[in-house]
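Service request form, structural biology core

Requester: graduate student, group of Dr. S.
Request type: structure prediction, single chain
Budget code: on file
Notes: please return the result as structure tokens.

Sequence provided:
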Amino acid sequence: MRFPLLRRVAFCTALALLSIPALAVYNGVQVTGVPPDQVASGTISFGDGSPQPLVSRSDCQNRKAENEDCDSTYLWFAQSASSVAIGTSVKVTLRDRDGNVTTGTGTVTADGIRVNVTPFPGSGGGSGPDFGGGPGLQLYWGYAEPTLANVSGGLGIQFEPGNEGSEQFVTFAPEDYEGESTGAVLRIPSFIEAYRGGFELAAALARFDAEARETLPGGTQGRGYAHQGGDAPSGATGLAFPVGTALDTIVANDVKSWGFSFSGVSIPGDNGVQWGLGLRYRTTTQDMMSWAGTEAFPGVFARFDEEIEDRYLSVPLTVRKTWNNSGAVRPNVHLQVAPGFYESELTGDYRAECNLCAAADMLIEQSVSDEDDGFSWEGAAGIGLDLHLGNRFVVGLFGRYEYYDHLSFANNRESPLDDAVSLGEDSADGWAAGINFGLEFRH
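Core staff response, request fulfilled:
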């Protein structure tokens, strides 16, 4: 026999190749119709083939070889010796923890295997965005009434003539505001879904305003306004009107707040409890206008425009509890606490006109500024009621209370003995109620 060694090598090589198992291919399976957390086990069959177990993403990652792909888009995978032909029919059978069974059919597409199953018996119609079975979008709108610090004084003051230090503001910044807030939450699926989690991107925008007006009638008290950036070049600390002249004052405040956050969130467990931890940036801007003058002397008045910007970077921890989380109507409550850091900045432009004054005091323009920073925290508690319409849409009502440990205010100059305008600090709180809409993309 010629080349006996070569024949032996060829024979041994063939045996070795036959003894090596075929490399597995994991095909992504997209299952819709039931929340992932309700599924205890499942099988899939291709065409007329025998059922085989569905593999979770975590199992796929544990078993995969270097040339296998456990695409993070999918929660489930089907193992095969090679890629399955596009158009092949498939059947999926799922079982929940109570032994209930549901089935569905689908096909193999270029983007994976897509199967829609009917809800488990008694499940009440499937899931909404809270379950995290896929990407989801939630929009909300609400009416709100926050309470802010009202210690910011305006411009008009009253005092006892000849008694320096007796000055008091006639009008303070409003305390109770009203307005509206809107926001959006986008849920993003990822490989963490296999471990009962996911991500959320959120954005929020709110605006509130209020105005206060007072008139100090003529009497025995002095009345006028103090220059806000310090004494005038002439040395004047402000201007006093005759005691018999009525003084009109206005303080108007417009508050805008916007922010965005990124959070990791869990899928609600069997008890309906869900938690999230993230990072949030928020800014609140207060634009306050103060005015003081009198009808008796229309050419004598002062105006002060101020802006305060508070910037917050916080770490919100949220816990949410949902009841009847497989039903169509789902009450819920949530609690949140968010420690963090703030930076505050105050800027202002003061202008006083007096056509009856000496030339040096006929027009006075001053600018003010101040900065502050430190640690703070925020908290919130709320209730809601969501109505899940099939497997795709959610509409609901919500109400919540919010508390802010830090909110800046303008510590305006009230007396000639006071320093120039500076930042002050107080807390704020309020409530909001509204309506929300949700959409689950994958269903």
